[in-house]
Amino acid sequence: MDILLKNIKIISEKPTLTNIAIEDQNITAIGPNVTIPSPEYTITGKRFYISPALMNAHTHLPMTLLRGYSDDLPLFPWLQKIWALERHFTKESCSIGAELAFLEMIKSGCGGFADFYFNEDSILPVAEKSGLRGVLGAGVIEGAFLEQGGEKSMLNEAKTIASKLENQSSLIKAAVAPHAPHTCSEETLQKCLDLADKYNIMIIIHASETREDVINMQKTSGYPPIEWLDKQLSFFTNRDVLAVHCVWIQQREIEILANHNAGVAYCAVSGQKLAYGGLAPVPEMISAGVTVCVGTDGTASNNTLDMVREMRSAINLISHNRWNPGLVTAPQILDMASRSFRKRFFKIPSLTEGAPADISIFDFNTPHTNPIHNSVSTLVYSANGSNTHSLIVNGKLLMLNGVVQTLNEERVIENAEIETQKIKDRAKKKSDIIQ
Ligand SMILES: [Zn+2]
Asked: Within this chain, do residues 171 and 195 fall inside the same structural domain, yes or no?
């Protein structure tokens, strides 16, 4: 698919009009006079701005079906209400919920994701159909979700998806995702590491999300979670680890993450919604050299996958909490929400000649994005996902002028509604609906 982006601006502080040539999967040239002999598509428009495609560093895709189901509740009652319904998810529910998530991401300019859930095997076909770049992290947890067969069957599921994607040229990568240090035994965590080493796949883990998690870990093991993982299991050594949240971590844990080149998914909105207090020490992690990426978390705790809106909350929360605007800047947040994840975990560059063409195209012809003094500020502070005009991933158009090319929008929304009702009916039969 040859695509020419004509007379557009690359989002930056002083952008100029330029052209971008995309041939097959890659960006082949960038410059004001660049052209392609007969492009299949030419995208052009006044006030059209582009950025590297946004990347959602942390989500639980099928939880779209729980969007708005449990709000205005403290963490524990919130979890109880969510889990009561979530245990009635089937493989089909996961696939249908994930498809809704892919549709939402494409429509809001997000070209990639790192998921963390069960039944990833049933999500894989829709992930590949969507055309997005992403990671399917097979969740492993003990003592909960026994309907999913316990940790043994979850580990098997992780193995299945890892072997299925081994040596494939798919845009989708497998990961193993132990839920958290306090919800997996040391033995299970070691099995996850062995699996990651065998298949050379990423590891995703929630860590230090709440103060309670950290206090409990400190009491039982003598160490906070990141330090314990490092000391007890050499968890981060020579591995591609994405640690999610890292809200209540100490300076020496930041150094552990930096020394081992770990990535962190910073999820501002879910932390605000569930009100467990604290703020991940993002400026300190950046200074130490940790790759910090932005994620939305699942839609039960967000309630959207709109990465443009997420950037705004992510930056404002830091400024507000630290009494210091500019501690993290708009260009930094944009990098954290786009190129950082691709660079660290897919090991590919963004928006340069020779790079795979993963590009979000925004139409700023809207009142809330004008005038445009600084297009980075416009995207981060004023725009929202609905400003997306088109989305290209790996050289393929996933959305053109607001029309999704890879998924049937109407059918996906309809299926999600029907499946949600089925889940609720199953839960009702078992008296699992919590008001
Ligand atoms: Zn999560």
From this structure: yes
Please state the domain count of the chain: 2
Residue 35 has pLDDT above 70, yes or no: yes
**Residue 426 included in any domain:** no
Residue 356 contacts by C-beta under 8 Å, 6 or more apart in sequence? Answer: 25, 26, 27, 348, 394, 395
- 240, two tokens: 């591609």
* Residue 102, domain CATH: 3.20.20.140
Cβ contacts of residue 113 below 8 Å, gap of 6+? 55, 56, 59, 61, 101, 105, 132, 134, 135
Are residues 16 and 90 both part of a single domain?
no
- Beta-sheet pairing, 17-23 with 26-31: antiparallel
Residue 314 lies in a domain: yes
221 in the same domain as 204? yes
Cα of 303 vs centre of ligand 1, distance in Å, is 13
**Residue 367 belongs to domain with CATH number:** 2.30.40.10
CA quadruple 29, 407, 307, 241: dihedral sign: negative
Quote the tokens at residue 35: 């052209």
On whether residue 151 sits in a domain, the answer given is yes
Residue 144: band (very low, low, confident or very high) from pLDDT cuts 50, 70, 90: low
For residue 179, report the distance from its CA to the centre of ligand 1, in Å.
Answer: 8
CA 206 to ligand 1 center in whole angstroms: 6
| Mean per-residue pLDDT, 361-375 | 98
Residue 74 predicted with pLDDT over 60: yes
What is the distance in A from the centroid of ligand 1 to the CA of 220? 23
Query: Which residues form the domain of 336?
Result: 54-346
- Give per-residue pLDDT as tens, 384-396: 999 999 999 999 9
Mean pLDDT, to the nearest integer, of 128-152? 85
141 CA to centre of ligand 1 in angstroms: 13
How far, in Å, is the centroid of ligand 1 from the Cα of 364? 32
Fill in the DSSP letter of residue 312.
H
Q: What pLDDT does residue 150 have?
A: 77
264/395 same-domain check: no
pLDDT digits (tens, 9 = 90+) for 316-349: 999 999 999 999 999 999 999 999 999 999 999 9
Q: What is the mean pLDDT of the segment spanning 160-186?
A: 93
Does the residue 425 lie in any domain?
A: no
